[in-house]
User: Fold non-specific serine/threonine protein kinase from Populus alba x Populus x berolinensis.
Amino acid sequence: MASSFPSFEKTIQFLWLCFFISNLLDLAHADPPYSVCSNNSNYSANSTFQNNLEILMSSIRSNASVSKLYYTSTGNDLDRIYAQYMCINYITHDSCSTCITAASQDIMQVCPGDKEAVVWEELCQLRYSNQSFLGHLDVSGNIAKDNQKDVENPEQFGLVVNETLSDLTKQVAFNASANMYATRQAAFTNTETLYALMQCSTDLSPDDCNTCLRVAMENISSCCDASRGGRVLSRSCYLRYELYAFYEGANESSKSPVPGKSSRRKTWIIIILTAAAAVLVVVILGSLIYYHAMRNGIKKWKKQNTRLDRNCHGIGHPNNNDFQLQNFQRDGLNDGESAFMDLESIYAATGNFSDSNLLGQGGFGPVYKGKLSDGKEVAVKRLSAWSDQGTDEFTNEVMLIMKLQHKNLVKLLGLCVDGDEKLLVYEFMPNRSLDVFLFG
Ligand SMILES: *[C@@H]1O[C@H](CO)[C@@H](O)[C@H](O)[C@H]1NC(C)=O
Ligand SMILES: *[C@@H]1O[C@H](CO)[C@@H](O)[C@H](O)[C@H]1NC(C)=O
Ligand SMILES: *[C@@H]1O[C@H](CO)[C@@H](O)[C@H](O)[C@H]1NC(C)=O
Ligand SMILES: *[C@@H]1O[C@H](CO)[C@@H](O)[C@H](O)[C@H]1NC(C)=O
Ligand SMILES: *[C@@H]1O[C@H](CO)[C@@H](O)[C@H](O)[C@H]1NC(C)=O
Ligand SMILES: *[C@@H]1O[C@H](CO)[C@@H](O)[C@H](O)[C@H]1NC(C)=O
Ligand SMILES: *[C@@H]1O[C@H](CO)[C@@H](O)[C@H](O)[C@H]1NC(C)=O
Ligand SMILES: *[C@@H]1O[C@H](CO)[C@@H](O)[C@H](O)[C@H]1NC(C)=O
Ligand SMILES: CC(=O)N[C@H]1CO[C@H](CO)[C@@H](O)[C@@H]1O
Assistant:
């Protein structure tokens, strides 16, 4: 009988799972950065080279809000470093700055110790090298990516793409007033429009820009023949085309834009969120029925089974083998340092909820200050004794906190459900208003 009603513990675990799923969805967006490392030259930790590289990256970050393409260098002799970034021309200075800030952090991580590296984010590129590359064409390490969805009539599409890209190449490379950037729209079928964009690094000569874009077009024909779209990320130029208006300032035709990769993702997100919501509703209803059944006289059954396992969850503890909890840690929602909490240690931390540790009395119960055995200070909210009201409040609060949990808010470190005892364990922040703990 017990197994036919989901327990409160199960409810909470499902809630964790739902939250975990919503995190996964964010991860699914994390395609970039794309990177190329040279692998053939290393610098060592704490070397002058590394120091120069960090100086260079910070100077680049400060420049990114004022210009969309920038070349710079620093250091002497063997420790000299050259760096350049390029934002896709249509994005704003703010977006460029955000993109480059991310790139400058990623580039230190994707090619650790490498004296030469390039990173492509969604809308910008950043590279550095121990050799000057200003004005040098470089198509090594081109990355070609298709739009994962096939076009229905690839031959016809290929012709339109070829014609449009060739046209665009001439404009970008040889029309000085284009400043090495241009976009084009071309009718494909009655209902679909091709949108294309090309950009060269402006330090290239027109001929080198032309060469770069021609190579990129070859790369496209070998990667993306049947695809609805494609792009080439090169050190020296950028090419992209789609059957939807992916760049700012495109003439959005009244014809319905064709869904690409991102809207397929959106569909998936909606499906998964709906499923998660359905599971959530079922589980919450199930547990409500369970508690009402208990209240309405299944007291005998309750007496035999009432003792839920001593069930505390520390979030982010390395030895915690709960699948979803470990993922909280991996997702960086928690610092991974919080100690695992069991009921005994929380009793000990708060001196058995002694009055001297009482921080205040909230609507749903008192809040105590506690010190875990590892010295970490926590605030423990002890929810009012057993009642349906309290159970609902607890569910609501946990759900609310899970929705809101964010680096800048007070962290929920763990929670306990043990019979009538319902505890929420927060990180203690001495300078925070007590209200934060009391009302979430
Ligand atoms: C550098 O090494 C990574 C993995 O270690 C490899 O994927 C990549 O192809 C290498 N790059 C070059 C240019 O050899
Ligand atoms: C860049 O580093 C590599 C490997 O350390 C070295 O062979 C090459 O000469 C360096 N280039 C310059 C211009 O210093
Ligand atoms: C660079 O370091 C990696 C490991 O960090 C090593 O495998 C590689 O051989 C090193 N390359 C050179 C040229 O020293
Ligand atoms: C680099 O410096 C940091 C602190 O300045 C130090 O902790 C680290 O051990 C150093 N690493 C090496 C390889 O010297
Ligand atoms: C498009 O151009 C590439 C070379 O730039 C060529 O290989 C490919 O066959 C062309 N595609 C069509 C459909 O003409
Ligand atoms: C060069 O580009 C400008 C717009 O950037 C356009 O108005 C002009 O017609 C182009 N010239 C040629 C010869 O295509
Ligand atoms: C792009 O084309 C160049 C020149 O044909 C080739 O060397 C390179 O391997 C190609 N890269 C990709 C990703 O197709
Ligand atoms: C955008 O559409 C308007 C009319 O709808 C047209 O006059 C204009 O030339 C188009 N611009 C481009 C870049 O296609
Ligand atoms: C173009 C531009 O803004 N350049 C600036 C980049 O940053 C350095 C200092 O970090 C300034 O000196 C440049 O003027």
